User: Which sequence fits this backbone?
């Protein structure tokens, strides 16, 4: 994918070593859907169709603040390790918000929930991050 702005590389760098905390900590990985920006923004159902998610999978849309809240706003102020990472999560959220157009967060699945934070990259593609939340 050629996004013209290097957003994929910047996201990979910003997310390196960071995990999404749920019942299992999973890494953030760069996500791209070439040509996926056509008709953007669209809802979770259309996104799920375009990525080939299983029919009938539970799905919902959330905000970027809800996705990163557990790592930024809802952290334990006495946990020094978590507080040391907080600025990196803040920078990652800010990069998504400023580097992509109309960022949306989609959650698809049950128990192992695929979480996508995506937006249009300026070249007609969708780009962003993917992670998995484990919720039993």
Assistant:
């Amino acid at each position: 994918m050629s996004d013209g702005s290097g957003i994929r590389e910047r996201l990979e760098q910003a997310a390196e070593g960071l995990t999404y905390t749920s019942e299992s900590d999973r890494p953030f990985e760069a996500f791209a859907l070439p040509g996926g920006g056509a008709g953007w923004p669209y809802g979770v159902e259309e996104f799920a169709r375009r990525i080939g998610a299983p029919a009938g999978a539970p799905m919902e849309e959330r905000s970027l603040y809800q996705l990163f809240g557990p790592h930024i706003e809802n952290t334990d102020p006495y946990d020094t390790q978590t507080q040391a990472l907080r600025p990196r999560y803040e920078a990652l959220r800010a990069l998504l918000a400023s580097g992509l157009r109309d960022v949306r967060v989609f959650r698809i699945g049950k128990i192992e929930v695929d979480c996508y934070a995506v937006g249009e990259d300026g070249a007609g593609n969708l780009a962003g991050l993917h992670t998995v939340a484990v919720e039993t």
Notes: The mean pLDDT is 94. The first strand starts at residue 19 and ends at 20.
